[in-house]
Specification:
Layout (H helix, E strand, L loop, with lengths): L6 H5 L13 E3 L5 E3 L9 E3 L5 E3 L9 H7 L4 E7 L8 E11 L3 E5 L6 E5 L3 E6 L6 E4 L2 E4 L8
Antiparallel strand pairs: 1-2, 3-4, 5-6, 5-9, 6-7, 7-8, 10-11
């Protein structure tokens, strides 16, 4: 008995070998193979048991840190970050001008050094601004901003 891998046995049956988690080829009535792939589902959609998809609409009352940071692009801000299990620096403060923000990251630049930082929002505790914060979100069909007067109930 040999421990040598025989590549010929892998290709003896149409060149396909089964691996866990990989789609398996199927014979078609016309003699060719095709690979069964799961259907593409749009982001945010849910697959029903019948195989259809239901598109989920995002809540109109959502406001994300990334959107607030995008509205404040070009402003100076201070970012307070926490890094768990780091003995050298568990908490760190970054100060810079907001250049960009995404779902999982923030890009700032330090005007005094020219250094740019890519920060992960996973580590973000809070942000402070030197001046007013530009802010808006949709609520009950209206856009609420930091200029919208407060109503009493």
């Amino acid at each position: 008995m040999s421990n040598v891998y025989d590549y010929r046995s892998m290709y003896a049956h149409g060149g396909h070998q089964g691996y866990p988690g990989m789609p398996m080829p199927m014979q078609t009535p016309f003699g060719g193979n095709f690979v069964a792939m799961p259907p593409a589902v749009p982001s945010g959609a849910v697959v029903t048991p019948q195989g259809g998809t239901v598109q989920m609409m995002p809540s109109t009352e959502e406001s994300y840190v990334e959107n607030i940071l995008r509205l404040n692009r070009g402003k100076m801000a201070t970012f307070y970050m926490t890094y768990e299990n780091n003995k050298e620096w568990n908490a760190k403060i970054f100060r810079g001008i907001i250049e960009a923000a995404g779902r999982d990251h923030i890009i700032i630049s330090d005007p005094s050094t020219g250094m740019r930082y890519l920060l992960l929002t996973l580590n973000l505790d809070y942000v402070t601004f030197d001046g007013p914060i530009a802010y808006e979100y949709a609520f009950q069909g209206q856009t609420i901003t930091n200029q919208t007067p407060a109503t009493s109930r």
